[in-house]
Structures are given as structure tokens and as C-alpha cells.
Amino acid sequence: MLQSVILAAVLAVPPAPAHTTGNLAGAVHDTRGAVVAGADLTVLVPDSPNIAARARTDAAGHFKVTGLDAGAYTIQIDRGGWAEWAPGRTDTPSAYAVVAGRTTFADSVVPAAGRLTGRVLDASGAPAAGVAVSAEDDEHARDFTGTTAADGRYSLRVAPNETYVLRFTDGHFAQYAPSTADRSAASRHPVGAGRTVRADNRLLPGASVSGKLLGADGAPVAGAQVGYVDNNAGSASAITDANGDYTIAKLPPGDFKVYFRTTEGQLQWAYQALSYAEADTFTLPAGGTATVDDQLLPVS
């Protein structure tokens, strides 16, 4: 009788539920053997825009994604400005089969990041601090940016195995290494995986525009916005001081026009023109200066 009760109790216990999901796990290192920590991973369904899961590598480069439906998945690894596919490809990702109740391992070895470094000097030979530096990858229409330190040095982490043009923007004047305002004359810098390429540069001198704005009554106009507009859609501005004077520095050479906008909203182009089309065109020589004074028209 007791045996019958025990048997009935055993038979009454429901079977353990079958696993319906599986896991993806692995580690990410680069080609120099370094751990790739803090990389954002996106788990995707192949040939679909659907995102199945997201994860991030830990301090040891490890990751684990749980609760995935059985099926095939690809893994995109974000390197901070560019991405690669597991197990370490820039294209043609591998598909990893996830089986219910199992963990599929997907380790990756990705190309080590490259680096562009150097020192930037101004036209006088002194360190140029605060210059915006951009490594431009034309093939992929992307760039990697930074700023020079107090000693003029910069260091940019870039996608490996690509070629870059270096742009330096000092104020409103964008120029390229080595010391040219013509992008087509700029050097091309190939950067391999795990390699550091040095590219120093000496800046060309910037030009400047200055002048004075007077009111219709001949008195200085303070607080007016002065706008510089060049033929390449570049722009810059300044505010007139108590004497009506202004200066806009670190400009590229070339043709430009100037407008004035008072605090009362009166807009005028030099010289005493009411529109861009009617405005005079001025020319800045390389590293030179131009003076554009004007007097406001009477307000009717």
C-alpha cells in the first residue's frame, strides 16, 4: 500500500520544463593580445535589422548574453568610432548557432587600434595649444578628432589599416599637413593595426579683418555683431567694443563680405548695402589683414 502511494506521488511530479533559450558568451582581444574592455556588442539576426540583444565586455574582455531564442546570430563589436564583426572581420560576419539549453562560445580577435600623434607649432614656431585636430578617413566618410595640449602635442586613436588626411583648425582657418591650405596637396597617412604614426605640423599664419562701425550720426556703435562670410560658406563673427572697433582673427585667405547687425536689429552689409548681393567683396591675403569700416544708413 505504501509503495503504491509513493509511486503515485512520483508519477504526479511534473517533468522539468524543457529549455527554450540558449546563450552566447566569449572574450574579445586585439591582435596585440590586449584585452578589449568596455566594448559595446550588438547581437543581430542575420540578414535582418532586428537586434536580439546588447552586451558590453567586462574588464577582462568577457561577455555573456542569455535568453536567446534558438537560431543563428551575428555579433557586431563597437570599437569606439568604428565597428567589426566577430570573430574579427570588417565585413562578412560569422553566424553563431545558439542551441536551446546550451552556451555557444564566440571569442574574437580584432585588429589593434592605430594611433596618429604629433606636435603642432604656430607660424612663429611656438607650441600651438587648443588647435582642433581631425584625422579624416575619406573611404569611409568618417573622422577621429582631438585637440592639441598646451605643448602643442596631440594623439588620436584611429581605426586601423586605413589612410588618413590630417586637418588642423586654428580659429576659423582649416589647414592640412604638411603646412598647406589646399586639401588636395595634403599628405596621406596610412596607419596599420597596432601602429603609431607621427605627423608634426607647422601652421600657416592666419589672416584678420578689423574696422570700426559708426552710426548715422557719426558716433561709435557698440555691441553690434560683425559677421564675416567667405566664398566657401565659412563664417565668423565679433562684437564691436565701446569705440565701435572690432577684430576677427585666424581667418583663411580669400574673398569675403562683411555685415553689421545692431542691438536694435538694423542689418547692413559693407559698404552701406542692404543685401548680400549688393555688398562689396574684399580680399584677404594669406596671413595678412584687411580693414572694413562702415557707417550705418539712417533709419527711415
N-end to C-end Cα span:
115 Å
Rg, please? 31 Å
CATH topology heading of the largest domain = Immunoglobulin-like
SSE sequence, one letter per element: HEEEEEEEEEEEEEEEEEEEEEEEEEEE
Instruction: Estimate nothing, just give the exact number of structural domains.
Output: 3
Reading off the top of the CATH hierarchy, the class of the largest domain is best stated as Mainly Beta
The description of the largest β-sheet is:
5 strands, antiparallel
Shape: elongated
| CATH superfamily label of the largest domain | Immunoglobulins
Strand content: over 45%
Oligomer: single chain
Organism: Paractinoplanes ferrugineus
GO molecular function: carbohydrate binding
InterPro entries: Carb-bd-like_fold, CarboxyPept-like_regulatory
Pfam families: CarboxypepD_reg (PF13620)
